[in-house]
Design brief:
With 320 residues, the chain is of the alpha+beta class. Helix content is 24%, strand content 34%. The chain folds into 2 domains: 174 residues, no CATH class; 126 residues, no CATH class. Strand 7 and strand 8 form a beta hairpin. The longest helix has 13 residues.
Length: 320
């Protein structure tokens, strides 16, 4: 059956910020919002459209946590530039899918904090795109695109994948939005390191931050359902393994470090606990990255999508 589905989800985004962050990401990619309807608006509204753009904030798990889901309007193809911009604005995970007529086109793409983790697309008559992932017929492994998309949601939220479609709707919007105005170009961003310090209070980290991570930036957080404290640290360049071990020893805590690359490139990761190096490795695909991100938040008891997605604010700069 013919159909066009361009969808995306962003775990961790709540009702207080969803509309503003969507508007910011659309503005970053040159897509004007012509009109807005809220809460189950029905039928086309007046404006310079129509370009239907629907979004919802849903409850992502039975315990707590939220996620933003969206469906873009009719298009020749998905707006990867917008998906990437949204991941930058929410400073977290965005996963998008593009499905047209089951056979003509199918694609899956994932982003984290403005960086491309994977793009996998097959479009009839055009070259395949396999960036940080194999082409869809290999990536999906015989499963349907929508089932894999739903599975990703469940994995990122430590939840039931079907909640992506049947979860409680907390807020909803139906907008008319200008069509895509920019083309996706693989980004080249400076390498940065992401460190997750599990079960650490802000006061404990701030007392040692200047000594252990000069030149970095950090912010404290609480997981949405278990209210477990953690510190997120970003540092320029590839992480220093000795620094990771020193932090875990000084605070007697688990520390995971992941190299944030761009354009689906390979990356390094390392894990330490109580001053001991426990494991390390190299990832080559987007799924490798998200599996590593899941390991990084293991001690927090939440899915990686719900730990991040808090927006780009709240950072404390550490003097050199």
């Amino acid at each position: 059956m013919a159909g066009l589905f361009i969808k995306a989800f962003a775990p961790g985004v709540g009702t207080a910020e969803a509309a503003d962050r969507l508007a910011e990401a659309l503005a970053k990619t040159g897509r004007a919002i012509h009109s807005r309807q809220w809460r189950h608006g029905a039928g086309p509204s007046s404006g310079a459209g129509p370009w239907r753009f629907s979004w919802r904030v849903i409850r992502a798990t039975a315990r707590g946590g939220t996620a933003l889901t969206l469906q873009d309007g009719p298009a020749e193809s998905w707006d990867l530039d917008f998906f990437r911009a949204l991941s930058s604005v929410v400073d977290g995970v965005v996963v998008g899918m593009d499905l047209y007529d089951l056979l003509s086109r199918q694609g899956l793409a994932s982003f984290f904090a403005g960086r491309t983790m994977e793009v996998s697309l097959e479009d009839a008559g055009l070259p395949r795109i396999a960036l940080g992932a194999p082409p869809p017929h290999l990536l999906l492994g015989g499963a349907s695109l929508e089932s894999v998309y739903e599975e990703r949601f469940g994995n990122f939220c430590n939840s039931v994948g079907s909640l992506l479609y049947v979860g409680e709707v907390l807020e909803e919007g139906h907008w008319e939005v200008a069509p895509p105005a920019t083309d996706y170009v693989r980004e080249t961003l400076p390498t940065e390191s992401l460190l997750v310090l599990a079960n650490v209070e802000a006061s404990d980290w701030s007392a040692v931050a200047g000594r252990l991570a000069p030149g970095g930036r950090w912010r404290a957080g609480l997981t949405p359902s278990l209210k477990t404290s953690f510190v997120e640290l970003r540092h320029p360049g590839v992480f220093d393994e000795a620094r990771v071990i020193a932090i875990s020893k000084a605070l007697a805590c688990p520390v995971s470090a992941i190299e944030l690359v761009s354009g689906g490139s390979p990356f390094q990761w390392v894990e330490a606990n109580q001053g001991d190096l426990e494991s390390s490795g190299v990832g080559t695909t987007g799924m490798d990255f998200f599996n590593t991100l899941g390991r990084a938040v293991f001690f927090l008891g939440e899915g990686p999508g719900l730990v991040f997605g808090r927006g780009a604010g709240g950072w404390h700069e550490i003097p050199r």
